[in-house]
Amino acid sequence: KSWTDPLLLAQLAGAAVLVVIFIAWEKRQTMPMVPLDIFKNRNRVVGVTASVLFGSVLSTYFFTTTLYMQTVLGFKPLKTGAAYLPLGLIILVAFPIISAVVGRIGVRVVMTTGLLSGMSGLLVLATLQVDGTYRGDVLPGMVLVAIAAACGFVTFTIAGVDGTTEENAGIASGILSAGGQIGSALGLATLVSIAVSVQVSEAAAQIPRSQALVDGFAAAYQVGAEILFVGAVIAAVFLRSTASNTAATAVKMSASN
Predict the structure, then answer these.
(1) Angle at CA of residue 220, ends 214 and 223, nearest 5°
(2) Is 112 found in the same domain as 186?
(3) Which one of 32, 118, 120, 135 is least enclosed by Cβ atoms within 10 Å?
(4) Which of 150, 137, 246, 181 is nearest to 48 (CA)?
(5) What pLDDT is attached to residue 1?
(6) How many whole angstroms separate alpha carbon 135 and alpha carbon 130?
(7) 35-71 in b/e burial notation, b at 16+ Cβ within 10 A?
(8) pLDDT value, residue 244
(9) Between these two residues, 198 and 253, which has the higher pLDDT value?
């Protein structure tokens, strides 16, 4: 079904109405579940926004890259899982380094750099070929995405809990986590639908299945790169310096997660 399907539009409209009702309800409560004044801090809004955007792309990255390795490169499930080990190792090694760098050059520079790194990684992956290889086609983009993830996990948390107190730090952290999950769901639904539409269109044009699959993945990567570019611009323009005590607390929180 297309994005203009009446049922889909009705569901989107219903979701929007529920959001409005929730906000109106929270405004009337003396002890709201989500205090709306928590969004008055610009850095928190930037942190949540960046988390939503990055989450939307990261979930799609795993989905499409896994399909590429299995359906095009012919990897078995176990080999596909092992292929992601470099990503995990890079994040593990880079995390403490980035945590230290943030204290020296600031959250804005690191967050912006991380989002641009992710954008670059997706642009590299958008050049995947039917006769590609793991080392030559998948791994370079994976390295850049891993760096982006390490930068993001640290800086999104720092910005997302900026200026909070012991009373509302947990709420801010919960909103940040929820934002990432919402972004993952929305991104997966949207970007994968873009990939599928390209694949279906090319299949109808009798383009070989493997080529149609790769072209669909490339389309999703390209749109994902554009999303991360928007996130990088938002971070560079709107993010302000954070309090040093907030940064220290946030690094501990992101490390525990």
Answers:
(1) 140
(2) yes
(3) 135
(4) 181
(5) 58
(6) 14
(7) beebeebebbbbbbbbbbbbbbbbbbbebbbbbbbee
(8) 45
(9) 198
| 115-129, 154-168, 234-248: the lowest-pLDDT one | 234-248
**Is the pLDDT confidence value at 130 over 50?**
yes
pLDDT tens per residue across span 181-214:
999 999 998 999 999 999 999 988 999 999 999 9
- Classify residue 74 as left (phi > 0), alpha (psi -120 to 50) or beta: left
Number of domains in the chain: 2
**Which pTM value belongs to this model?**
0.86
Contact present, 217 and 195 (Cβ < 8 Å): yes
CATH code of the domain in which 80 resides: 1.20.1250.20
33, two tokens:
């579940």
Please tell me the predicted confidence (pLDDT) of residue 245.
44
Name 246's Cβ contacts closer than 8 Å, sequence gap at least 6.
158, 161, 162, 163, 164
Q: Do residues 79 and 132 share a domain?
A: yes
